[in-house]
Amino acid sequence: MNTSEVAKLLGVSASTIQRWVKQLELPMEKNERGHYHFSSEDIHQLKEIHEKLQAGTLLHEISPVGEKKSIRKGTVKAVENDKAMEKLFEKVQELELSLHAKADSVASYQLLQHRREIEELQDQVKKLTQQMEHLQGQLNELNSPLQTEKPIVFEQTKAKRKKKNFMSSLLGFL
Questions:
Q1: For 1-37, b where at least 16 C-beta lie within 10 A, e where not — what string?
Q2: CA dist., res. 81 & res. 76, Å (int)
Q3: 3-state SS class at 59
Q4: Taking the model in full, what pTM does it have?
Q5: For residue 159, is pLDDT > 80?
Q6: 165 CB-near residues (< 8 Å, 6+ apart)
Q7: Which of 22-31, 115-124, 129-138, 163-172 is the least confident region?
Q8: pLDDT, tens digit, 9 for 90 and up, residues 77-90
Q9: What is the mean pLDDT of residues 37-65?
């Protein structure tokens, strides 16, 4: 029986039956659409719950009599679900391949970019090394002892010298 048929049988609403099942955590079977499907044992158990409630027992005080431990059952259309699952699986595989290809291209681009940056940095290091060697050479020239001092050469111009008179040249040795 379905929920509305059991509700008519017990004289309660369908939502009341659903509330009892949920609050008392009764293990009821459901069909493929998720609707409860009640067996004769389930109906008997619900009648006992209804009688206890009529006698004044509160719902939270009721513990289900002879709880059955069954697994939810439902019919599944295997062929349609298998095809849908195959399509879904294929789509997931396509997306994964696309994702991996995109990740590979991004990684390749980043590697090329890093390689260019490294080459630029190496060129800058070479230039700086050359400049440093040049400056070191200039510093060594400035700090080296003056080994080959160049004599100071004055311009030789024909300047008129005063001629010493004869007497002063003779007496100059004194």
A1: eebeebbeebebeeebbeebbeebebebbeeeeeebe
A2: 8
A3: helix
A4: 0.36
A5: no
A6: none
A7: 163-172
A8: 566 678 888 899 99
A9: 81
